[in-house]
Amino acid sequence: MGKKAGDSPAGFTLHAWVDESMKQQSVRLEGMYLLAAVVGDPATCEPARDALRELVRKRGGRLHWRQEEAPRRARIAAAIGTQDLACIVVVGVPIAPRRQERARRKCMERLLFELERLGVSHVWLEARSALLNRRDVELVDALRARGTLVTGTRIEHSPPDDEPMLWAADAVAGAVSRARQGLDLDIRTALGEVDEIDLELS
What pLDDT band is residue 27 in, cutting at 50, 70 and 90? Predict the structure, then answer.
């Protein structure tokens, strides 16, 4: 997109679509939690949606990064990289076993702060269960009460099946996660510029 935080002209609208990825700790790697956002003008996102819909294997299906093979991941990443979108990923490390929700809260706080600085007016989080969605809402309310979030940015949950912009966020999170493990670096490169923010969770 080529836009920097705070430089949105009057009348310019930005929305963000957010998804997560997680890599559990192993002998060779510390665990990490990633929260990715793709940001764009909602009035001009339809070409991005169409490009991703064209890559769906079966009618009525969706793209899911973990279920795709490397050649298709490369095509998905290239499709995203050619769109007028900004990509932001907060990478939290290390993630302790069974502490995913704590990691999500920490990464969500930082990501929402960055999106607010960018001038995003509406954030769509991939819907999870009713309980986990409610926890997200409670976090947002707490951040507003503390003054961490100071604008009226609207934050909602959206089911992923019918929203390709959430597929894009899923792909960005997955590609960055793989690259952080030293894997599929060419696929990560195909995404183009991604703002990666490291966050200490311990």
Answer: low
Rounded Cα gap, residues 64 and 70, in angstroms: 12
3-state secondary structure of 105: helix
Cα distance between residue 185 and residue 166, in whole Å: 22
Q: Is residue 58 very low, low, confident or very high in pLDDT (cuts 50, 70, 90)?
A: confident
Q: Catalogue all structural domains in the chain, each as residue range(s) with its CATH number.
A: 15-200 (3.30.420.10)
Residue 86, strand partner residues? 39
To which H or E segment does residue 169 belong?
Answer: helix 164-180
Integer Cα distance of 83 and 51 in angstroms: 9
CB atoms within 10 A of CB 69: 7
- Separation CA 157–CA 17 (nearest Å): 10
pLDDT of residue 3 exceeding 90, the answer is no
Which tokens in the block code for residue 178? 């793989």
Angle at 67 between CA 96 and CA 43, to 5 degrees: 95
| DSSP structure string for 134-194 | HHHHHHHHHHHHHTS--S--EEEEE-STT-HHHHHHHHHHHHHHHHHTT--HHHHHHT---
Residue 174 CB neighbours (<10 A) = 24
